[in-house]
Amino acid sequence: MTIWVDADACPTVIKDILFRASRRTGVQLVLVANQPVHVPRSPNISFIQVGAGFDVADNEIVRQVSPGDLVVTADIPLAAEVIDKKANALNPRGELYTRDNIRARLSVRDFMEGLRGAGVNTGGPPPLNPNDRHAFAKQLDRLLSRERKRY
User: Fold this and answer.
1) Cα dihedral across residues 107, 14, 89, 46: positive or negative
2) Helix extents (H) in the chain
């Protein structure tokens, strides 16, 4: 399993959780962004910088992801694409996207985008809080444990 991170929008605290998990378990961690991202020196942590542009990092992740990999992203269309490739998608707030819930999430996203396009101020997501960080760490540990049991 490789963990892919949509790193442009990933909160620092979530990246730190991922760095610790990668060092602890030895799982490969790849951050993908179109801006430089600091990553600690580790044989199993790497960074891919892609060119600027809309969805360039997302497209690189989709191109390289394999079945069973994990993608950390809040981008619902990206999550849908990686699920279609039989990979896992985890939101930085700890929500695991699945075949069962991704279509509903896409519908809500498209609805909200339509409202914003019509000039309605829908606000943004609330800031990440300690419960979100805990939920993310717990779900990540669950996925990593499940992966270890497979081997």
Assistant:
1) positive
2) 12-25, 56-64, 76-84, 102-117, 130-150
Q: Which class for 60: exposed (0-12), middle (13-18), buried (19 or more C-beta within 10 A)?
A: buried
Ramachandran area for residue 51 (φ above 0: left; ψ -120 to 50: alpha; else beta): beta
41-75 pLDDT, tens digit per residue, is 999 999 999 999 989 999 999 999 999 999 999 99
Q: What is the CA radius of gyration of the chain?
A: 15
Per the structure block, which two tokens stand in for 83? 């699920």
Cβ neighbours around 47 below 10 Å, total: 15
Give Cα 85 to chain centroid, integer Å.
15
Tens of pLDDT, residues 75-109: 999 999 999 999 999 999 999 999 887 776 766 66
In the chain, the amino acid numbered 72 is: V
56: closest CA among 78, 39, 85, 72?
78
Which candidate, 136, 143, 138, places its Cα nearest to that of 95?
Answer: 136
Is this prediction's pTM over 0.90?
Answer: no
Helices 102-117/76-84 angle, 10° precision? 150
pLDDT at 128 over 60: yes
